[in-house]
């Protein structure tokens, strides 16, 4: 997740109904530059550019050129042609790939929480070198909150690679990296914000799509890596991998400041602008997805009249580039947004619990990084999650990143993550590419 008042990335918390009209608009160059610049400033990834891994002038020029095909690429056919999850519908090379790599924009089939066939967008990046025997392992990345509307998708940014924390090191180590936008972002589709099964399926199907893409050299070994909202997404992907994508060989899961106990996180954060903003994304998504089948899942059942009246308006705004608008709407609602406790008010308590990861033993090693100064995903909540996983028998490596808040935790955890992967899921592993997930 990311906060509008704090220039750091924020945290939280089927029906196949179309995305809400208010969330379907998409601007062009000005909006893309704003988001691209905002992401760089927000999570410190300008360091990657300074290192020379990307050539800034080339990236911006080629990213602008790619804009010409963007609108048509994201258009979803009506009706959506039926296909298996992970099937590619559309692909397009991205000339603005980091030096030494090749990249594509993709549109692929996935499924939502209700089991409906949907289309999801994202990007794939692979080393520009011959793949080893057995193929390259895949890292499927879950991004932190950038918003919940279509136009807030990371793949729409003029520099879509900058948000993938650790991309440089992962490519250098020999991994293929795929980054989903999540359903309803980029391509039109059902809302997905903090809806664990939808996000988890999107993460797994992105890995399948990367395998189907000519030129990646991707095998079946899989690592999941996510930050904040993306941490919740990849934890759900890990829990579902063996049943949902049995052809993939899940080797390891890594998260930074993951959104785990959604009810507690919401309660801890709702007293400031960031909490109200994150709440608007979550409540709008939950009411959109669950209201048709869940009695009482309306905004009016949990929010004040003032909060319910502006939630869809906030949910249509992106976290980066539209902070001022979010701040103007959210500030008067501090202390006046919730009409009750979502953790004890039904059906919200049940919905939040259903979308909280954990409670099952993961069959692969888990890496968890947490900043000790995080004011969004509170360190004590992450520690509780870690303790719960260890009690279930999950092998957990827990790293506290000193003097670090929410926005920089994933970036600062990358050196520890890469060292951990050398043992947990080495890119040079000779594990059979056909091994089952889990």
TrEMBL record:
<feature type="region of interest" description="Disordered">
    <location>
        <begin position="1"/>
        <end position="27"/>
    </location>
</feature>
<dbReference type="GO" id="GO:0004806">
    <property type="term" value="F:triacylglycerol lipase activity"/>
</dbReference>
<protein>
    <submittedName>
        <fullName>Secretory lipase</fullName>
    </submittedName>
</protein>
<dbReference type="InterPro" id="IPR005152">
    <property type="entry name" value="Lipase_secreted"/>
</dbReference>
<keyword id="KW-0812">Transmembrane</keyword>
<dbReference type="Pfam" id="PF03583">
    <property type="entry name" value="LIP"/>
</dbReference>
<keyword id="KW-1133">Transmembrane helix</keyword>
<feature type="compositionally biased region" description="Pro residues">
    <location>
        <begin position="1"/>
        <end position="16"/>
    </location>
</feature>
<dbReference type="InterPro" id="IPR029058">
    <property type="entry name" value="AB_hydrolase_fold"/>
</dbReference>
<dbReference type="GO" id="GO:0016042">
    <property type="term" value="P:lipid catabolic process"/>
</dbReference>
<keyword id="KW-0472">Membrane</keyword>
<feature type="transmembrane region" description="Helical">
    <location>
        <begin position="33"/>
        <end position="54"/>
    </location>
</feature>
């Amino acid at each position: 997740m990311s906060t509008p008042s704090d220039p750091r990335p924020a945290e939280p918390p089927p029906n196949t109904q179309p995305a809400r009209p208010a969330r379907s608009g998409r601007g062009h160059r000005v909006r893309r530059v704003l988001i691209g610049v905002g992401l760089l400033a927000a999570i410190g990834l300008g360091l990657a550019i300074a290192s020379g891994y990307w050539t800034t002038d080339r990236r911006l020029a080629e990213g602008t050129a790619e804009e010409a095909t963007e609108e048509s690429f994201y258009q979803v056919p009506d009706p959506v042609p039926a296909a298996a999850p992970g099937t590619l519908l559309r692909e397009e090379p991205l000339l603005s790939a980091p030096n030494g790599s090749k990249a594509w924009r993709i549109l692929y089939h996935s499924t939502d929480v209700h089991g409906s066939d949907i289309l999801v967008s994202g990007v794939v990046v692979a080393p520009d070198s011959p793949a080893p025997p057995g193929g390259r392992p895949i890292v499927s990345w879950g991004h932190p909150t950038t918003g919940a509307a279509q136009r807030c998708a990371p793949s729409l940014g003029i520099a879509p690679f900058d948000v993938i924390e650790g991309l440089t090191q992962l490519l250098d180590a020999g991994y293929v990296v795929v980054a989903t936008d999540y359903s309803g972002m980029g391509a039109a589709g059902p809302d997905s914000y903090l809806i664990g099964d939808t996000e988890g399926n999107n993460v797994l199907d992105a890995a399948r799509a990367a395998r189907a893409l000519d030129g990646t050299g991707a095998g079946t070994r899989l690592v999941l890596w996510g930050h904040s909202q993306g941490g919740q997404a990849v934890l759900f992907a890990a829990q579902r991998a063996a049943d949902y994508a049995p052809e993939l060989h899940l080797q390891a899961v890594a998260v930074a400041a993951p959104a785990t106990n959604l009810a507690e996180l919401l309660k801890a954060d709702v007293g400031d602008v960031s909490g109200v903003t994150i709440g608007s994304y979550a409540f709008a998504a939950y009411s959109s997805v669950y209201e048709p089948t869940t009695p009482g899942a309306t905004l009016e059942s949990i929010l004040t009249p003032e909060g319910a009246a502006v939630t869809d308006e906030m949910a249509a705004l992106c976290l980066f580039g539209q902070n001022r608008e979010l701040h103007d709407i959210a500030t008067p609602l501090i202390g006046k947004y919730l009409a009750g406790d979502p953790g004890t008010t039904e059906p919200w308590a049940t919905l939040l619990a259903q979308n909280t990861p954990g409670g099952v033993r993961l069959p692969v090693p888990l890496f968890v990084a947490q900043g000790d100064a995080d004011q969004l995903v509170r360190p004590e909540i992450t520690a509780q999650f870690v303790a719960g996983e260890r009690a279930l028998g999950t092998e957990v490596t827990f790293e506290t990143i000193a003097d670090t808040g929410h926005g920089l935790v994933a970036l600062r955890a990358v050196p520890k993550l890469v060292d951990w992967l050398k043992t947990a899921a080495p890119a040079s592993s000779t594990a059979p590419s056909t091994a089952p997930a889990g």
